[in-house]
Amino acid sequence: MGWREKITKAVTDRIRAYHSSPHDFDKVDMSKIGSGQGAQTYGHGFYAAESPAVSGQGGQYWQEFKSRFSGPELAAAEEMRLNNFDRAAAIDNMKAALAFRQKRYDTLLEGLRDNPRLHGAPTRESLAADRQVLELLESGKPVGPRTYEVDIKAKPEQLLDWDKPIGGQKAFDMLRQHWDRKLGDPDIIAERIGISPGSPGGRLHAGIGGLTQDYVGTANMLRDAGIPGIRYLDQGSRPRAQLENRLETLRDDEIYARANNVGIPDRLKQQITSIENQLGSMPPPTSNYVMFDPGIIDIVKKYGVPGIATGGIGAFTAQDSYEVPR
Description:
Radius of gyration: 26 Å
Helix content: 40-55%
Number of helices: 12
């Protein structure tokens, strides 16, 4: 059984994720890795995010990629963002704004071009630029950063979890079996690269990098072991993870006190209650993904992201999107 069969066998669930890019494509091409954002910090592969607030339309990476555009396309992309990516609304609002600016130009400014009090008023050039933006929006062409909604044919538990200890992770068990078949005693290899069951997945990834000498080799080793990719908490979820770790430590203290018939200090109770309350007000954690194989990634929608995003991004609609043909 090949590595792709290992990954996809008996997989009924898929991971839904989002990817923003300055590039337009219909399928994932691993040869283009590195042409996007970042420096492959969490491994070599295709990056996607569980949260649309990270990589959906108007999200963190969409905003960063927007700076790569200029002229009418940049202005049209911003107009789309201001209208929650509803192209019809963006066109209507652009028409209204253009009509107002044209009226000001026609009735108030003709013959007064040198009046310093009119600095910033419409000019022929700015009106022409507005018309270019409107024409681009009306053309139906995609504008600004591209957004992709993807299905990943894998289960989260198949991925190497960057943040959690490797002991007990299915990915580490599979990697040990791979080492045993291909390289030798997995315990000796683990000792050689300086890891233990308590090491986080990121430390394992770094250790493998010491064996393979590059991130591509590391990705290939994990993939050959039947591990389809890596998952790691996005930046917005890391404060929650820190609180959860702190709560676990405090609860260990509480369990110790009960087991030894020691009174539980009021301060310990207060700290536990405080953290529980904080966690109760936080959204569930979300992950980013680094996938090694384009064959298990399906682009299901392009440009639009349906549903409601969190994190203050606003409502996302499917009015500027289309289904990708299969």
